[in-house]
Amino acid sequence: MKWSLTWQACSMALLAAMAPAARTANVGNVGNVAEAAGTALSGAAVSGADPGPASLPGDPAAPNELYLEVILNAEATGLILRFTQQGKGLLSSVENLQQLGLDPARFGAPGQAEVALDSIPGLSYDYDAARQSLSLRVDDSLRAPFMVSARSSSRPPPARVTPGAVLNYEAYAELGQTRRTALFHDVRYFNDSGVFSNTGTLNLGAGQRQYMRFDTFWNHADAETLETWQLGDLISGSLSWSRAVRMGGFQWRKNFQLRPDLLTFPVASVDGSALVPSSLSLYVNGVQQYSASVPSGPFVLNQVAGINGAGQATVITRDALGRSVAMTLPLYVDTRLLAKGLTDFSIEAGALRREYGQRVFDYEKKPVASATGRYGVSDSVTLEGHGELGPGVLNGGAGALLRLGQAGVINGALAVSAGRSRGAQASVGYQYLGPRYSVDLQSVRASARYGDLASRDGSPVARAADRVSLNLALPAGQSVNFSYIAYRAPGIPASKIATVGYSATLFHGIFINASAFQDLRQRDKRGFYVGLSMAFDNNIALSANTSRQNDANTRSVSAQQSADFGGGVGWAVQSGTSGGAAYRQGQVDYLGNLGRVTARVQTNAMSNAGSLGAAGALVLMDGHVAAARQVGNGFALVSTGGVADVPVLHENRQIGSTGGSGYLLVPNLNPYGNNQISIGTDALDVDARVPVTNINVVPKMLSGVLAAFPVERYSAATIVLQDADGKPLATGLPVLHVQSGKRTVVGFDGLAFVDELSAENELQIGDSGSQCAVRFAYVRPAQGGLPMLGPLRCLPAGGGR
């Protein structure tokens, strides 16, 4: 402690040091205090010894309790904390250090009540007795870093469901020489317990009358545990080195789709430090992704998203004076990896389904089971496992994905089968995704007798499969890719195909795409494709392409305009040749609130044909049946309380208006995610009252939810009030509506606005000493609006209208 103190500061320091003695002396005897101060000062001068810190008490063994303003790394904290002075040092409670953002575990004092500041490496301090302040200088290694998340998206509210049912349908009818009709349906019933779904197609005409069922199941999901249970038709879980099968039975699996905000793969984090409070900006591959403010000291920026493969993150901190510090780090993110500690699994048991899409109900009689699991050991290692059990089949294997720092990810797996199919399968691969080039290598080898559950359904196991892919990014939005695929399986001719492709975005938004392939085993098997397309702002797109495969040429030119999202007319025309035969085709469709209808005409040298199509949905919810567009995995039924022609917006984009019953269905919402639904109120009558105009809708999977916007009408009017002489009442007089109890005041020209009117009304006006009353009847206008009633004379109690 430097002794550059004023005489006043020295006196205060000495008085503070003599505080114990002063407390025992007669406080009324100022001379005793002055004498003690002089003795202490002369003693210090005579001894010639280093007086030490100004705060040192007279008795080094006696503790001294201090309440000091704390300054941390030259920044005022605004805290006044308690310290204990003992000898030449200061003691602090661990709680104090935690309030200052210090981590006790970092200096070895997590279980202590107090710690000596002098014993903490990386910490120094100055105690100013005159100002009663303590200035701490702390290394970043002792401070708990300030945590910042680079993802602004928060967890959505809990998903809701309104019990109901929906029928998605799509009808198609051919009107040419071959007349046939097909009707596809997707029937669902949903409530809080889950969703029942059944899909199928009915085919009529062309000498057939057949119904084909696809999938029937009951599904229940728990967003808290991220687990899904399904009973009925299902698809088993699989990995990149195993195969999925269709079965009927029961499935229990992890479902990360229940948390769209959750990142399942390892995300990057960036560490840094700010000398003073600063603004922070994050750039990923040169594009700003996030900005925030950070205090002085260390910080950790978590969940740096926006990268798939190799890239770089740049963090720039800028203080109030404009001084900036930039830090750039290389990153590599692979979405196939699981974050550390995360688990993914799928367990199924049931019977294999055969001839899917050809038979309505065909299942094996003997049961089978399968299980798939993945676990993130660390942010660089993910382990995988898969097992299958069935009649004559016992299959199991394990694999892993390993990130090689910034150099990509390698994967490998080994599986063996027993029973009637004894063999082994091995796979190995490597993938690197970079901004300039990408490489994807994968190879699989299986022994002759290796088998799995899919092989029981007649799908042979590939004995050898190789894939090599290289993509190069060129300047000016160009790219070139090369690929090689080799495949060998029992009963299928072996193939080795090499492909080269080129794509580029040219001037005025013209996109060109060209590719060519060659079968290396059958030299006469080759082909090419060249396509050109261009899109305009008014949803019009033009395209032209030509191709050749197996000595057959194909050419086409087309133009189309898609119907607007909010509804409207779309069209498409196409002309071309296929196999030497010319054809022409035209199509027009209309998209409305009730669905989509399509008409198509096609001509060629042999015949003319036409077709009609319709797609939509029928929804039963809230005691109402609504016709609407086809709904997807989630939807909402908007209700405006019976008010028609109210515009409805989805994410600030108008999708339609409520019908005569005051309902409109909003399809294709994100299940378990945020969906902003709002209504437009500009066209509503002036007497309309809308408590809520925007709702965040979070539906469950395959379900719907009611979004209620109650549009109420005011029962109100402007009353013209006059006194007994026919003059406007004075401004500011209190007005009481007896029936509702509501109060207001008289405005200019005797006008008063009164709400919640009933059929018969009474107004009491004025103070208790001089009060008058007005009685009148009210009828709400049929066309809406806020009427003006009067003039009405305010008469003493017992008066009339």
Describe this structure in words.
With 801 residues, the chain is mainly β. It contains 4 helices and 55 strands. Helices cover 5% and strands 55% of the residues. The longest helix is centred in the N-terminal third of the chain and has 18 residues, at 30-47. The protein is globular, with a radius of gyration of 40 Å. Among the domains are: 7-144, Ubiquitin-like (UB roll) (Roll); 156-171 and 551-713, Outer membrane usher protein FimD, plug domain (Immunoglobulin-like, Sandwich), CATH 2.60.40.2610; 268-333, Outer membrane usher protein (Immunoglobulin-like); 717-796, PapC, C-terminal domain (Immunoglobulin-like). The model is unreliable at 1-58 (pLDDT under 50). The chain has a 24-stranded antiparallel beta barrel. The chain has a 6-stranded mixed sheet with strand order 4-3-2-1-6-5. A hairpin with a 2-residue loop joins strand 1 and strand 2 (75-86).
